[in-house]
């Protein structure tokens, strides 16, 4: 028996896959069109949704691809990687809130540090939550902090020490300082806790990635590194039959363009309906590969010289990388010399 459902994940899909039925996922946009085929007036009910999907499966189902159960190890790795990205997104939002709070009462902190996604900047706010406390701490404590956090650099140390000593010259009112310093310290505590959880997530991801039989293949990709390799492996999976051709993988990843032709009009546009997690991982991988692979940088520069934007050039490079990766994935050889491609 076949079942058409408007999603490809979740507890309901898991239970269906464990039973004796064949599951056919349907994209929400396609499900809407199937319903409108039954009710062109725009009426929407659960009955019409079920009828439209069931009739579509009966009439068009012979061309649909059934959903296959994922490899448990790859599935766990996929969920861990996606949750890690969600936590990073939350960290970015918290960092933005922290910078907005510091802008109102503590501009010296923003002037002293450029990278606020690093824990040393949060530790600084926790140790010296207000400009007054920073000035009162004195040069000795300032030096100790820079050395403890391994921030002592001859090129930047004196500039930072000068900023610390003059922190009270440009600061907010006392009431604003009391209120916003409390918010800043609260955000710092959350950020430090979140960073500890991110470290634990990355350790778990590294362990699951090392246990996967394809870890050598994905670990050898130029520029992927320890963060992007697990993401690429988890999103692509282990089932070679899921992507019989390289074009299938490129379409799912969103690097393959969508063609539009009507009369004498012919154009190609970006593919929006795709696996956005895989698209993001491929985009970052293509960008990082330029720094370690001469071929990738040459390919990227050629597209830029043709007038392509940075994002478009990376998308084209990702398209080529996915074709290479698909061939490697089918044959299972790790990459050894990327510059010979």
Rg on CA atoms, Å? 26 Å
Structural class by SSE content: mainly alpha
Distance between the termini: 47 Å
Determine the mean pLDDT.
Answer: 91
| Low-pLDDT windows of residues | none
Strand coverage percent = 5-15%
Short description:
With 341 residues, the chain is mainly α.
Textual characterization of the structure:
- With 341 residues, the chain is mainly alpha-helical.
- It folds into 3 domains: 2-69, no CATH class; 73-210, Orthogonal Bundle (Helix Hairpins); 213-340, no CATH class.
- 65% of the residues lie in helices and 5% in strands.
- It contains 15 helices and 4 strands.
- The strands form 2 sheets. Strands 1-2 form a two-stranded parallel sheet.
- A hairpin with a 2-residue loop joins β3 (258-262) and β4.
């Amino acid at each position: 028996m076949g079942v058409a459902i408007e999603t490809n994940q979740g507890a309901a899909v898991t239970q269906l896959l464990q039973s004796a039925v064949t599951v056919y996922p349907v994209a929400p946009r396609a499900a809407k069109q199937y319903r409108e085929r039954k009710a062109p007036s725009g009426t929407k009910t659960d009955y019409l949704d079920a009828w439209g999907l069931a009739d579509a499966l009966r009439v068009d189902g012979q061309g649909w691809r059934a959903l296959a159960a994922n490899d448990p190890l790859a599935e766990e790795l996929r969920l861990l990687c996606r949750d890690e990205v969600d936590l990073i997104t939350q960290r970015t939002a918290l960092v933005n809130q922290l910078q907005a709070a510091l802008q109102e009462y503590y501009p010296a902190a923003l002037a002293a540090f450029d990278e606020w996604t690093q824990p040393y900047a949060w530790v600084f706010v926790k140790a010296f939550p207000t400009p007054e406390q920073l000035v009162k701490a004195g040069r000795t404590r300032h030096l100790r902090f820079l050395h403890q956090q391994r921030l002592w650099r001859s090129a930047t140390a004196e500039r930072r020490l000068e900023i610390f000593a003059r922190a009270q010259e440009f600061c907010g009112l006392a009431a604003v300082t009391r209120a916003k310093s409390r918010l800043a310290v609260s955000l710092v505590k959350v950020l430090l806790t979140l960073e500890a959880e991110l470290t634990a997530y990355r350790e778990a991801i590294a362990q699951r990635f090392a246990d996967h039989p394809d870890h050598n293949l994905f670990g050898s990709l130029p520029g992927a590194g320890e963060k992007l390799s697990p993401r690429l492996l988890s999103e692509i999976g282990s089932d070679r039959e899921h992507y019989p051709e390289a074009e299938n993988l490129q379409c799912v990843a969103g690097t393959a363009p969508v063609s539009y032709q009507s009369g004498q009009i012919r154009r190609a546009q970006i593919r929006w309906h795709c696996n956005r997690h895989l698209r993001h991982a491929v985009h970052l991988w293509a960008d990082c590969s330029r720094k370690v692979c001469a071929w990738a940088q040459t390919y990227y520069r050629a597209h830029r010289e043709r007038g392509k934007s940075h994002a478009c050039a990376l998308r084209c490079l990702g398209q080529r990388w996915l074709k290479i990766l698909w061939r490697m994935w089918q044959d299972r050889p790790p990459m050894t010399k990327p510059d010979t491609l």
